[in-house]
Amino acid sequence: MRKTLLLIVAALALPALAETTRFWRQASFADFEKGTARGVSLRSDGEIVLAPRYRDLADPNLEFVWAVAEDKQGNLYVGGGTPAKVVRVAPSGETKVVFEAKELEVHALAVDPKSGTLYLATSPDGNVYALTPGGEARLLFEPKTKYLWDLVRAADGTLYLATGDKGEVYRITPDGKGELFLSSGETHARSLALDTQGNLYVGTEPNGLVLRLSPKGEAFVLYEMPRKEVTALRFDSSGNLYAAAIGQKTKALPLPPSVPSSVPTQPPPQQPGATVVVTATAGVAPTPRLPFLVGGGTDVYRIAPDGYPERVWTSATELAYALSFDLQGRVLIGTGNEGKLLAVDSPTLFTEVVKTPGQQITALLRSSTGRIYVGTANPGKLAAIGPELEAEGTFESDVFDANLFSQWGRISWQSRSNPAAGSVQLFTRSGNTSDPQKNWSPWSEAYADSQGTLIASPPARFIQWKAVLKPADSRTPSLSAVSVAYLRRNVAPVVETVIVQAPGIGIRSLPAVGKESEPAQLELPPTGGRQGTLPQPPPQAGQRIEPPPQGVTDPATRSVIWSASDDNDDALVYSVYYRGENETRWNLMKDNLKDKYYTWEAATLPDGAYVLKVVASDAPSNPADRARTGENLSDRFEVDNTPPHIEALAATARSRSVEVSFVARDTYSPLKKAEYSLDAGEWKMIFPTEGTTDAREQRFSFTLSALEPGEHTVVVRVYDQFANPGLAKTTFTVK
Q1: How far apart are CA 44 and CA 98, in angstroms?
Q2: What is the pLDDT of residues 185-228, one digit of tens each?
Q3: 3-state class of 394 per DSSP?
Q4: Which of 172, 249, 532, 563 has a CA positioned 20 to 30 A from the CA of residue 86?
Q5: 111-116: long-range contacts (C-beta < 8 A, 24 or more apart)?
């Protein structure tokens, strides 16, 4: 307890806050992510750089684009839905629908680079088709399963098909003969990849397994991902396998006993080809379709050729649907549900390359030139990214609210790349609405001095900055921090409520050492401040802590408590004035108060009706010519320090009873109650002859019966409305 009191006292001794120059600084990824990027990328270490060039290629009139493939002539094929459709996009940009089916979507594509034949898988309840360069489609294979998820083609022309909802993988020869190659024991075989030795890699759901199968069908669980659905598998040029998995694993019922408990290394002799059955880890529930409905974030792992797994990127909110690589060897991640394309520089650094119009990036394909083709969903579009950089990029910050009308100082910025002079220019605009499109000032002329230039935008409450990055030489411009100085206009403090406490209540902030007092209930101002109070910025160092006031019973005192605020966060001092009813002059009761309450001796004010005025001043935090004051009045309250007067107290004996009578009178307030005590006994209530105790003067009479002979003393006590007691006694003899 003593330590707590010392901390509070120390807080009270901190220096007062003042309205001085403040700085709005943005220098982190979290800061920049709130803004709007056009032609620039955001690095997770807080740097804005020019982005690879982004351009829309085609609108295939699809809701979802699930797959993109390219033939040797440079034609792009876009597969998606709904309904199931493949659109060819020529190098000239001309589009043509080359395949349609009754199913909902085309979910996977693969191209024979020699013949130009396009292989495609439709879903749900779909098939595998072969489409010749001439546009002739033929049914290649019917797997008779619900979902067809992925399709890859080996160098010898063999196709591998990943399916659900039995978690099977089929091997299909070029002439269309298919056989079951893997029964994973999972609900879905979700993604596929092939290495240079012809090994097949399979990602599953719901246990997030990454399986490796040799051409002979020998299976090995390479890694179990922390998340449930492996949505993409891709190899880089060094033989590292990248795996993306989404969704939280949830407990479910144990797998049925029919699931095999071993992984055969040789296919059963009675089956053609190589069929492998793998046991899934029990206790994980499958994901409902569509994948867009999945939550729970993403993990992307890099699995080295020797099998060592390392997580390179994770997110609690983003969902990864596609993987690829840029010319620098960085893994690219197509995500949802904000349509972001991310590039992973290292396990501790990533770049938000671009944010597409689509909600999800569902397909990525890198061409031989290094250009990245991007397919999106909601809506389904096709775009191209890079490899060249944008000629110019702009970034608009979020809108900054100073909370008060402000004068702007200087804007300055920093860059880690030491760009050429003029390659980074900043602009500002300001206004008095939160929406910058509604009657704000126009964008200022360019600021070119990164060390600091006086802001030309007019004083206002809101401000926004814009950066334009444009290479002036071979160096690539970047931006890592922006600082805006501002001084808020000093406004008057506001005294919201003034409450005079009931008589006999004192207030103090800390208990008095060595003095016991009965606690008393205070009438406190409403919490939350006045209506319309501006939101305040985070507390600053040195902000004064106000311990809650404590009410104590003290018949000799009166107290007042008030609430006050200052939108500038200034330290305030208070003065309390009083004025009698029907008077015009205010009289100072106490000034230079730092607490929001005051207790005074009740006898200081004569009997009567009064009003208090509390004046708040921000002088401690401002120069004399800038200090402001605010004030408010209490409700009318009454002071009555004079107890009732008891007159004509008489005791008239009648045999063994006595009739006692008296008159009680108060000069200011009505009487409240009366009582008597006989021979120092307990106090007993008595009522006036007219019944109710509610007038300034009232007569009382009562009878004492069955008294013992001898001398007796009766004491009467009368209270007025302010609990002032008046007493009197009389002695009589019973014979």
Answers
A1: 42
A2: 999 999 999 999 999 999 999 999 999 999 988 899 999 999 99
A3: strand
A4: 172
A5: 111/69, 111/70, 111/71, 111/77, 111/153, 112/153, 112/157, 113/71, 113/72, 116/71, 116/72, 116/73
